[in-house]
TrEMBL record:
SMART domains: AAA
ABC transporter domain ranges (all copies): 3-229
Record key words, sorted: ATP-binding, Nucleotide-binding, Transport
One Gene Ontology MF term: ATP hydrolysis activity
PANTHER family documented for this protein: ABC TRANSPORTER ATP-BINDING PROTEIN, ABC TRANSPORTER, ATP-BINDING PROTEIN
Pfam families found in the cross-reference section: ABC_tran
PROSITE patterns, A to Z: ABC_TRANSPORTER_1 (PS00211), ABC_TRANSPORTER_2 (PS50893)
Protein name, as recorded: ABC transporter ATP-binding protein
Domain of life from the UniProt record: Bacteria
InterPro entries hit by this protein: AAA+_ATPase, ABC_transporter-like_ATP-bd, ABC_transporter-like_CS, ABC_transporter_ATP-binding, P-loop_NTPase
Amino acid sequence: MLIKVEDLKKSFGKRTALKGISFELEAGQIYGLLGPNGAGKTTTIKILTGQLRADSGQALLFGEKVFGRQEEVLSNVGIVPEDANLYERLTIEQNLNFFKRLYQCSGELIDFYLEKVSLLGEKKTKVKDLSKGMKQKVLLVRALIHRPEILILDEPTSGLDPASADSLHNILLELKEEGITILLTSHNMEEVDKLCDRVGFLNQGELVASGRPFDLKLNYSENRVRVLYYYQKSSEQNLIEKTMQLDDPEAGEFIADLIKSGRMKSIHSLEPTLADIFVKLTGRNLEDDGS
Ligand SMILES: Nc1ncnc2c1ncn2[C@@H]1O[C@H](COP(=O)(O)OP(=O)(O)OP(=O)(O)O)[C@@H](O)[C@H]1O
């Protein structure tokens, strides 16, 4: 396991941020921690990257504890933090060169990744003149220039317009193809559904469910179907839509009859979205402010 979190607990005074969460991440996967504000996502990331010490439990990267050993363990990890901590008055190139020296790497990947995020032509632009989406891309490039095996991103698309978010998603999928293991946090269920091999639902410091998005949707499906049928045989004007429970025996007869009499137009299963499942499990919406 490249990333392993086991029974991780953390409190800030009387406020409990993590109540004992566990998850694992295999090489080459994308894992998404999904949760509303205050769920404990950033606390998890900060512990995993050695910025915070856990009260108990384990947070391991490459099987090693990070706290107190950041320099060694994180030399192989790229981190995109929640807040853009770039030097605003410096250019993109100056920011990246600064990190190149810090990481003591050659910097040969700087132009490669700037090209990938369509910012090569903006190298000489000062960070203060960039849009939020562009800054996010610079943070991503900064996290990649030392060729890390693990990439950790805290809310990478928060506040981005849909086009910028989409372009970032495509880059993350390409990085996965290159074999990079990715852990990200998000409160956007569509993003997690699209990107992640596995997802963990974090709510008030607890992982309430985890698994492959497909399996979660299947497990929480309510066996409903939407049937579109003709009132009379092949009369386009009289198209009727009906939602039915698959475990209702009458629905079976009704559907069989529609097929036999040639009145069935279409039938679709109604799967819940990840957001529906989150609400079902927690009674909370992903956009809640956590209060
Ligand atoms: N330094 C701190 N001091 C006190 N409480 C904190 C501190 N950091 C986090 N918390 C609390 O711990 C809980 C989890 O916060 P955390 O930032 O991990 O949530 P999050 O899921 O990342 O939310 P967001 O999406 O808003 O960043 C919250 O109740 C928060 O107020």
